[in-house]
Write a structure and sequence with these properties.
Elements (H helix, E strand, L loop, with lengths): L4 E3 L7 H15 L5 E7 L12 E5 L20 H7 L5 E4 H4 L10 E6 L9 H27 L3 E3 H22 L3 H15 L7 H31 L12 E6 L2 E6 L2 H5 L8 E6 L3 H8 L4 H8 L13 H23 L14
Parallel strand pairs: 1-6, 3-4, 8-9
Antiparallel strand pairs: 2-3, 2-5, 7-8
Helix pairs in contact: 4-5, 4-7, 4-11, 5-6, 5-7, 6-7
Amino acid sequence: MIKYKFRDYPKKKPIKFYDNNRKKIKKIFKEDENILSIYEYGQTKAPGISDLDIIIVFKNKTKKKILNKKKYDFINIDNELYDLIKFGNVIKMDSETFKNIQYFDKFNLSLIYGKKLNYIKPSQIEAKLLVQISINDWIPERILRLQNIINNKTVNISNSLCVLNSLCYSLKSIKKFIGYKKNINLILKETNILRRDWHKIKNIEVRLIKLINFSIFISKKYYHEYSIYFSKFHTHQLLHKKYKEEIKYEIIKNNYIIFTNNINKILEIEKKSTKNNIYISKSFYSHFAELANQKNSISRTMKKKYNYFNYKNTKLNLDYKKLLIKKINLAENNKKFLRFVKISKGLIRYGYNA
């Protein structure tokens, strides 16, 4: 059993602390002629643990040459403010991409500074399909991150609690398709308790490690159960009929999503190694293959990370497919804008490019 060291303990902070830092953001950027609006997405229900999640919307006529790019990542501006943002990715985009922001994920948006912007609201049918898409985009990536945390001797507590909280959103979504699950509710409840009452509980580090291990196992179990619904919904012509080998996709360096038909591998707890793997049902391959098959730079990068790529043998529901393509193309537009203004960080967070 690994003997863990712990760092970055949550600090006691009042909710007013967040309000004061929102005011700082207004003050810092009020004279910036490149910025149209700054939004917060997400919630700060756990003071001292919750991040400030920020979206900066630039004017469409933003100058190509921006001198102080670090400013937009809140680096070397204010240490207290940076501590609230450092674990997140400050998303940066133009107003055209922002119009479609709810097609990326269901963002809880709150204006901090600038002009209040309109955005397109997906229909009820689209919203339900976008939940399906979000489950596939995020659950494998979150499990990989938790496995990385648990396989290291030093555990960053604040970051671990943020990843668990993010996973909880996906677990809530998965219940919509597979029904009530007691173990999912246990994860939701325990995550909330640890985030809310961290400073009140004795030996809480032990509870955190137990929760991470339990969350990995339960997430794998019910994501696999969700694969049965997913296959029926999309009436798949499953890939394994013609290609029985496992397919590997390297989501980030030494972190692999492996598509397999082996249920034992899907449900087993991954042992520590130089590579971090998650085995998922081969029925999910069609989702990732569709993303990798588009004619844009993000898709081309994805395609290079497969040990084998076959697109012809997969089928997706047509409306689901359209929304998936829309999402990857919006991400590409976001990337093009960042290239134009020569900003290296800030692409909207998405499971495959986290």
